[in-house]
Amino acid sequence: MASRTTSIVGVLLILLFLLVPSSSTRPPLKFKLLGKPQSHGYIYVVMKIGHPPRDYYLDVDTGSVLTWLQCDKPDCPGCTKWHQPHPYYQLRQETKVPRNDPLCHQLVQDPGLPSGRDCGYQLSYVQGKTDGLLIRDKFYLPINSNPHHRPIAFGCGYNQTDMESQAEADGILGLGRGSAVGLISQLKQNNIITEDVFSHCISTKGVGFLFLGGSEPSSSPTTWVPMNRNADNGHYTANVLANLFFGSKQGTLIGTQMNVVFDSGSTFTYFDSRTYQATEAMVKASLHHSLTPVHDGTLNLKLCWRGRTPFKSIDDVKPLFKTIYLVFDYNNPKATMNIAPENYLIISTMQNVCFGILESPVSRTNIIGGITMQDRIVTYNNEKLLIGWSDDLCRNTKSDSEITSRL
After folding, report:
1. pTM
2. Distance from C-alpha of 40 to C-alpha of 309, rounded to nearest angstrom
3. Cis peptide leading into 52, omega within 30 of 0?
4. What confidence score (pLDDT) does residue 405 get?
5. Is 61 a catalytic residue?
């Protein structure tokens, strides 16, 4: 009898264990995304930061390790900042991270050596640079659908140079990999999330979602490529090379041995010089007879065309252009990203259509930017070292962040 009772108790304990969610596995944090890469120049999330909490628009940038806000530094009257939607974050002495903090040691491996007692840094981008201090303040996060605040280290950018293009954001949400000072790393270290995984999806309509600590399942299959664990500057780079085809997967070969970086903070997509020249030539050669080359000063892009009537949306021009296929040397069949016309064309305010693929400013580097990520769930799995994408309309159900003032 005792043996039988013990057996029943054991079964009940096992059932209880299966039914109760494990404390070691935490659900991802869900945020609403806004913005259109082709018009705003970026996609952004609304974060509540500070005490008292205030809303800030943060540009979602997988090419940056550090999250930072523009801020006012009282003893820097000559410092420059772009005009932003919200008041600048006010630097306070008690929020400064000291130079001997472990996170400061992590940070200076990339931006530069700090001087003085504070943790100063300088970050350089392809366009512009920022000087700042590492600080720590409260981030209000949607944990289990309820707002919770946690201390997070981030940057106070008090002096920006040549970064006017960020004018509609208050700062950067750095989701780059490989540093303890990164937001994802801090969330995992503080047991707020379990996995170093995140995904984003932004639609051509200007709305979408961001998952931190997990990914959102898609109704379509996910294509995966391995991630280069040794990529520079926290970038998400495929660990396999790719070829580029025009018109079909077996179409004209216009790019070979391409090193590909996934960067949501880049508005446009960039191809290395040789690949770009071949792509431009094929686009021009295949132009529909109804299109006429035109200079469009609103976007300052090299290739623009006007139609017989003004273009109101991408849907008006999709039939006039061909799909480009980025084929990675991985798996069988090969991992392929279809770059349809809506993933590389832009309608300007003058109602012309412009080519949103540019020549890369970085030698032998190809960048998949925000315009090509539209209508896709892009997943960055740092646990398994994989980058994935799947077609999706980005119509996720109501995000937890909407419960806390659009956080």
Report:
1. 0.88
2. 25
3. yes
4. 24
5. yes
